[in-house]
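Why do we care about 3D structure at all? Because function follows from shape, and shape follows, mostly, from sequence. That is the central idea of this module. The next example makes it concrete: a single protein chain, its amino acid sequence, and then its structure expressed as tokens.
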Amino acid sequence: MGDGSSSRDGAKGRLVDAFSAFGGDALRDVWLFDKDSHERMYLRDDVERKVADVDVPRFVDNERYGYVTRDTYADLYYADYEYTVRGFDEFEQFRTFLSDDSAGIGVFASFDPVGDGYNYRRLHETIAGVVADHAIEDFVPK
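And the structure:
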């Protein structure tokens, strides 16, 4: 896909634009998922070559464990779960869910590491603003 294109239309396009504005050239990929499917929204050319041999559905299945984790946190903690960040040797991965309802739509993206790190809370708030402007159904993966 090598999808480095700029502005996109619709809810999904605005979501990708939010990630792009946050990470700039460091944005590597953006994926939407729900309990049954996933959709690649953006994949930088060099990352596309790296994931060519990766079992992407299995990788996405691992992100679906977040449904259990989110529900567990809701039962155990006094604060609401918002997002998860994982550090890898070549990138940082951010994951959040777009709603708490039965739609169960999540998004994850990765970024090249930067010296002082990212303000992921700001990214989460930006994503929440994009989601608030659209029906959750507009984000269902194809």
